[in-house]
Amino acid sequence: MAPPTDPTDPAYAAGLDAADPLGPHRDLFVGAETPLVYFDGNSLGRPLRVTGERLRTFVEEEWGGRLIRGWDEAWMDLPLVVGDGIGAACLGAAAGQVAVGDSTTVLLYKALRAAVALRPGRTEVVLNRDDFPTDRYVAASVARELGLTLRWIEVDPAAGVSVDDAAGVVGERTAVVLLSHVAYRSAWLADAPAITAVAHDAGAVVLWDLSHSVGSVPLALDDWGVDLAVGCTYKYLDGGPGAPAFVYAAARHHEGLDQPVTGWMGHADPFAMGPDWVPAPGIRRMVSGTPPIVGMLALQDMLRLLAAVGMPAVRQKSVALTSYAVDLADAWLAPLGVALASPRDPERRGGHVTLSHPRMREVVAALWQADVLPDYRDPGGLRLGLSPLSTSFTEVRTGLAAVRDLLA
Q: Is 234 a catalytic residue?
């Protein structure tokens, strides 16, 4: 009997799941066995089952047993140890260039101020008009503080910044190009190496926001020549709500990094308690306050899994999931007036898909009541965040069938 070829057939989804080499990993996640459909992995990933035991052990043995000794024994270096783990598993970054701590917003501010300081005398920051609000708000704050000018790239919200778009605004006054690698709204996957080269050709530095790509799209920051990058860990890295962010700075810039939040943990000798701030060597100078140790626990479990699976396999599954979602949307939702608000070409699409309809806000509210959890983004966008290791093809079909039924 020939396998089914109709993507709307339940047997088609079942066949994709049966052939999926990453399918068995779904059982490693809390809640994956329930009928709830989770389409928000690009906002908050499911926790791994092993993390519950890790948290219990930490409370009873490390925190409760070792107490203050934990700082000398492991915790003090954890921002750099976990940073190296992110760099190796997800970023294509050699050791000593990634630190974990603070929120994405705080690290973005620190990284942008440091990036501007690398190009004294230059007065412009280039960014995307449709980028995530925090990126735009932080850039505006830095511009006010330093008397800089923001140069905007205007883009189609269903697409994103192209190489030509960037080349059209970058020039001799550009200090920093600040862009998201994957657009939060459309999932547009920017050509990071080419745009980085455009910035460098103009004498500028580039700062990438990797929040919607890390753990979903393979990255090669060292090979691409990236200067600085930031990203969160609670989306595809499953670090949990409020898990700390990470910052990457290429080793070639470390001696010149001048970040504005000069806390004691970034000091060359924190316990000297000296009168003046002397920056620590290397990436540690980007650390400010006491490391969020508890917030890094779940993240370590996911990094081990990603290192074992490998980002190429994760990306292959991600493309398959989003492509299947697009196929179902074409078959079921396009006749109901739904438009694809993401790139159709998977080479230009990250790990989520946005579907547009004037009544999607109401649809999303109703879906949540039915235990189908996407999220909503204006204008009229239902966003499907498909986390490759915890999402099945059958789950995608079940959720989109619910969208179809509501719209119909």
A: yes
